[in-house]
DNA sequence: ACATCCATGAAGCCAGACTACATAGTCCTT
DNA sequence: AAGGACTATGTAGTCTGGCTTCATGGATGT
């Protein structure tokens, strides 16, 4: 019973093809195939089945792959133990973020981590509409993802998710707008407005949908953009109003744009760090996540202070 | 980070010397030493220290050995998963018991397990006074041990213990005894009697001590024997009375001996299966333990039926 | 001081995991 | 229908890495 082989099976369960596993583990497909064959012989029962060109796991294979995860977690926990003894989080950590969260959290977090010698954080950004967050955990140690409250699309998949912050979604208005003097807005206040929306399928979409449900009328969406800067420019030009994340937007722009909180709606998004459970155990990874969390708390505190 | 090496470290933590680890793992001391050296180099900090002729673990070494246990547990759980898929508990299971428990549980349990092809149970007995139960878990998969209630001497050592049964301790009297007609006995009834005791340090000893504490007088112990048959023969000869375990003694012997329950005292012993946590995960081991537990329940039920 | 226990070094052996290459099956395209 | 592109997987050979054997040095106790 070899751990390396089980690890291969787990990779196969995640990636779905021998070739992909080989690429990911810097081996030839032949080597992977041979090891899986050995594993199967040891197990005494088929772990994979051919399906078209590729392979799929049998029930037994999936079960075994699942326990391979437990082993990987225990293993990483062990290396974390000794990393702790050296008081050293070292190694490479790869991270992928969507742009707004990265802009808000990464510069500060990386500054805070600068004194950790030997800890190298490699960051990338990826458009949230194009990214299947859970799938990215195969390639990156940490995936910054956002989800609307109540949506736990990845809890079930056996991934570890650490909440970093909850960010309220406000309504952005041009300064001259008839609602610009209000303290907060309700669904009925805004449903009749001209909206700048996000592309269909984006998470914020649900909020506007909730507004429609609550009021019984349809909202008029004239434009749909993914880039928040673009949306803001439309708001400031007086071409409509939009939902903007409170912290990652430009915020109140004196003389040009104001943000007003929504009441009576579940208008906030969770920003979470998403990880494969074994990787989440690595001390280096935990250190980075902790830095992100601290930074997020600081951002929230600064905004709270500014508001209060 | 290699599992085999960590396993070696764990063995070292348990057995205390490279030579012992080598013997236990069928290797030469040199091989063990080399692997530990590699582990230490990987860890980047000393895991062992010389102490006289032998080695002792450093704090870091102990911590690492502890997480090695977690890995071993996960590993055995994985093999259990696939054993389950084959519906087959196979392999060798070694067991050591103290005589009375073995006589009561083993014949029946082994009969129940006879239909499991490929499951071989190797049993040994060992005198409870000579045996350090926790230490035996290094050599045997299952250690049948007894403890008085409230004594959890091995819970803390990171061992898995599965309770099999609680056996009441009765007072054995010769049939002609003045108390032989009673339904049950209290401490004050028996403290003045002539006692046949167990050797000093035996677990039952505490009961007699409790009797002395409760009554404030000392009990007269004329003989001390380890073997229950011997004790019973003294009882039947009218040479004294003694504490006897209800199920593993010969029980009521019409015309010769009667058993009377004690009230007002914590007069029972726990019989438990004691295992190293990784071994406890093996399907074969779990199967045997389950058979023992079932057998124990049956013994208790039979006695309850006979009494009622 | 010697015998005996311990851990550990050096040299060589051998299993087992890898690469490179070749083969066979499946899917899609033309 | 046939080729090309993709899968997985066999075969042969290489080489890493853990093992054994033998030898050394320190610690203990008689």
UniProtKB/TrEMBL annotation, chains A, B:
Pfam families in UniProt: HTH_1 (PF00126), LysR_substrate (PF03466)
Organism expressing this protein natively: Cryobacterium zongtaii
Family recorded in the similarity comment: Belongs to the LysR transcriptional regulatory family.
Keywords: DNA-binding, Transcription, Transcription regulation
Transmembrane keyword on record: no
GO cellular component terms, semicolon-separated: protein-DNA complex
InterPro entries per UniProt: ArsR-like_HTH, LysR_HTH_N, LysR_subst-bd, WH-like_DNA-bd_sf, WH_DNA-bd_sf
Record-annotated HTH lysR-type domain positions: 1-58
Domain of life (superkingdom): Bacteria
Higher taxonomy: Bacteria, Bacillati, Actinomycetota, Actinomycetes, Micrococcales
Protein name (record): LysR family transcriptional regulator
PANTHER family linked to this entry: LYSR SUBSTRATE-BINDING (PTHR30346:SF29), TRANSCRIPTIONAL DUAL REGULATOR HCAR-RELATED (PTHR30346)
GO molecular function per UniProt: DNA binding; DNA-binding transcription factor activity
